[in-house]
Specification:
This protein is an alpha+beta fold. The chain folds into two domains: 157 residues, Jelly Rolls, CATH 2.60.120; 131 residues, Beta Barrel (Cyclophilin). It contains four helices and 22 strands. The strands form four sheets. Strands 21-14-15-18-17-20-13-22 form an eight-stranded mixed sheet.
Length: 313
């Protein structure tokens, strides 16, 4: 029997993602990959998959999908409201808990709950083409599986190699909000006035509606530049905070360009990225400066915490 998902509703920003692509910035290829790496890994771990198995990432409203084929397990991670529809019966699902679906069952991912991104993993493999060792979709560059496009209504997604394990698993995990985003100084830190730097670390910023997988635009006090508002383009990394001429910071995220010509005031530490990306438009952000050595320690602790969660499954 052929196993596949029929997409009845594509959702707002539904794509295939894995850990992303490495070592391609020098030829202008972004890393892409899951926005929230912890929730991505947990979705695969609960099902006993390899940690880098491709999953479906969705934002705000997710897809409505109908399953055709043999039994298969799935799990949803993040802060997500969803239900399983079996004929006329509806079951409200719990995140971080595996469920078995059969021929004709539907998964209706209604919305993320006061967050942005959620993940759907299956106990099997999606039939996807890989590009530069990854299936991650970057819709701005049309890179990745699904011809570099979002998943849309009307298409079918074939499934390969369903795992026979039907044991239900559950992880007791609660996503926590972050009060302050910790940053280290950027390479152009001295381009900004004392007033601008003080404002950056003391005032409130708010996530703009213009944020997406490429970057998070912030609204708030204008960060004063006393040197150059445009510089010779330099390499960018995920989490770097650029400040264009209008003084509103932009935080680079998974699909960011590989070079940029705006001065960089700081870089969000890796340990805070997963929680940063889950801040929905209108959310308040405050920045806190820390040293590089502390950022490295915090990242090691965050990775250890993630591994401890995986070991509980």
């Amino acid at each position: 029997m052929n196993n596949f998902f029929e997409i009845l509703r594509g959702g707002i920003n539904t794509t295939f993602q894995d850990v992303g692509r490495n070592n391609l910035h020098h030829i202008g290829i972004p890393s892409s990959g899951a926005m929230d790496n912890r929730n991505f890994q947990l979705s695969n771990s609960i099902l006993g998959n390899k940690l880098n198995n491709p999953v479906i990432e969705f934002a705000y409203q997710g897809p409505l999908i109908k399953f055709h084929g043999d039994k298969i397990n799935f799990v949803i991670t993040g802060e997500v409201i969803f239900k399983i529809v079996r004929g006329k019966n509806e079951i409200i699902g719990n995140c971080y808990e595996s469920y078995t679906i059969e021929e004709g069952d539907k998964i209706d991912i209604i919305s993320t709950n006061k967050s942005v991104y959620g993940y759907l993993a299956i106990s099997g493999e999606f039939d996807l083409k890989f590009q530069w060792g990854s299936c991650s979709v970057n819709t701005k560059a049309n890179i990745g599986s699904n011809n570099g496009k979002k998943i849309i209504s009307g298409q079918n997604i074939n499934i390969l190699n369903i795992l026979p394990n039907e044991m239900k698993k559950k992880l007791n995990f609660v996503n926590t909000k972050i009060e302050k985003i910790r940053v280290i100084k950027g390479t152009n830190y001295n381009y900004f006035s004392e007033k601008g730097i003080k404002s950056f670390f003391n005032d409130d910023f708010f996530v703009s509606k213009l944020s997406d997988r490429m970057g998070m635009r912030l609204e708030g006090p204008k960060i004063e530049n006393i040197a150059e508002t445009n510089i010779r383009s330099e390499g960018l990394v995920k989490g770097v905070i650029q400040v264009p001429a209008d003084g509103n910071p932009i935080i680079m995220l998974s699909d960011h360009g590989t070079i940029g010509g705006y001065p960089k005031i700081g870089v969000v530490i890796s340990a805070d990225i997963d929680k940063l990306v889950q801040l929905s438009p209108g959310s308040k952000i405050k920045f806190q400066e820390i040293e590089l050595e502390d950022a490295e320690t915090l990242f090691k602790l965050y990775e250890l915490e993630t591994q401890n969660l995986i070991s509980q499954i």
